[in-house]
């Protein structure tokens, strides 16, 4: 997503992720097993075989694609974006690093080059980030036919990103054998995808029952098609995250504040029906992932962003966050959730917190580096933060 994307949360620590333990082999083929502490993605350990990582999605994953084609005075192209880790804006919709950055680092890979910043195949030797802030699973044309204002809907849907990937793959490998080898030794991060397909109509006041909820099967079908395309090209390991709990996102909490009654909120201050919608999407996604046809050499992992984010929302102080700012954006423009408008961070009325690491939400729609780090850590190491043993075949 972009300055147009939410975040979400829920569940006890032992149930936080439904990812599987990946055992690395010399051939980089992943085997699926279950560890005693839960399910998770094993971090690289010297000889772990992923030589590249490719990522798709929206602003949860975009490390500079939208920024590259946006005006230099766009809010996300200026401080305080990027202040925590980089010390300057990088095109990430965050104060620092994203989940994809932590995953790359944990797997022994460099930060991925944004596709629109690459100049030669050499720039993409260890992976590419195709995600674009604001991007959707469904096409821009679909939303045009739906009658939406396209101002914030970029023409870089999942299908477009897949075409970018095919062009990169062809530049990296000149023969079918070379391309299959590249695919088999690469990790693919599919999003998250779909959040903006719902955000855009939500933010344009469309009917939830008649227009937004019916989008779910269409979004899932697009994600399924993308997975099948990658498998047909030779992908062996694909991580497919679910959506965050939007009922805990400051921008959504502000937007629906005047329309909500006390019974709409859970014990943690999140809007229940919005979180239920995130669960609805995630269940449909997991059902599709379970049913998708593939041979035994292909591993598809589900990344449970929803429950990981809920863990820090429900138990903030255990994980270093402040209880009083769980639902308050670090960088915003006032109001009870510090998120009065869509582009509240970086504008003339910016209200910036002193320590982003104690906040979950960065700008009302995206998480802080500290929150993203928590999510990534538990994808790599599992719910108990232990280093899984890696047993090559």
TrEMBL record:
Keywords (A to Z) from UniProt: Glycoprotein, Hydrolase, Signal
Annotated signal sequence range: 1-30
Pfam families to which the protein is assigned, alphabetical: Lipase_GDSL
One of the record's GO molecular function terms: hydrolase activity, acting on ester bonds
Recorded family membership: Belongs to the 'GDSL' lipolytic enzyme family.
The protein's name in its UniProt record: Esterase
Organism per entry: Oryza punctata
């Amino acid at each position: 997503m972009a300055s147009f994307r939410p975040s979400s949360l829920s569940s006890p620590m032992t149930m936080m992720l439904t990812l599987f333990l990946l055992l690395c082999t010399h051939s980089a083929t992943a085997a699926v097993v279950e560890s005693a502490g839960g399910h998770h993605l094993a971090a690289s350990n010297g000889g772990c075989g992923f030589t590249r990582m490719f990522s798709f999605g929206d602003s949860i994953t975009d490390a500079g694609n939208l920024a590259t084609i946006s005006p230099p005075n766009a809010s996300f192209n200026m401080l305080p974006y990027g202040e925590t880790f980089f010390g300057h804006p990088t095109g990430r919709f965050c104060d620092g690093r994203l989940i994809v950055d932590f995953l790359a680092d944990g797997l022994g890979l460099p930060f991925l080059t944004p596709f629109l910043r690459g100049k030669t195949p050499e720039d993409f030797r260890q992976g590419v980030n195709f995600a674009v802030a604001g991007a959707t699973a469904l096409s821009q044309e679909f939303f045009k036919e739906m009658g939406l204002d396209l101002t914030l809907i970029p023409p870089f849907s999942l299908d477009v990103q897949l075409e970018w990937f095919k062009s990169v793959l062809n530049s990296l490998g000149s023969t079918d054998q070379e391309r299959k080898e590249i695919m088999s030794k690469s990790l693919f991060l599919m999003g998250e995808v779909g959040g903006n397909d719902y955000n855009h109509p939500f933010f344009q006041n469309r009917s939830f029952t008649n227009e937004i909820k019916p989008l779910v099967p269409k979004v899932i079908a697009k994600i399924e098609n993308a997975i099948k395309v990658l498998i047909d090209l030779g992908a062996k390991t694909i991580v497919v995250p679910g959506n965050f709990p939007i009922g805990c996102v400051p921008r959504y909490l502000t937007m629906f504040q005047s329309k909500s009654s006390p019974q709409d909120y859970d014990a943690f201050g999140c809007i229940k029906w919005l979180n239920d919608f995130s669960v609805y999407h995630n269940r449909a996604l997991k059902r599709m992932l379970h049913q998708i046809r593939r041979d035994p050499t292909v591993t598809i992992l589900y990344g449970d962003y929803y429950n990981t984010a809920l863990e820090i929302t429900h138990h903030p102080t255990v994980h270093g966050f402040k209880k009083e700012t769980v639902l308050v954006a670090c960088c915003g423009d006032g109001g009870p959730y510090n998120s009065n408008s869509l582009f509240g961070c970086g504008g003339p009325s910016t209200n910036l917190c002193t320590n982003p690491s104690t906040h979950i939400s960065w700008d009302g729609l995206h998480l802080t580096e500290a929150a993203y780090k928590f999510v990534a850590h538990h994808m790599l190491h599992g719910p108990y933060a232990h280093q899984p043993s890696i047993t090559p075949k």
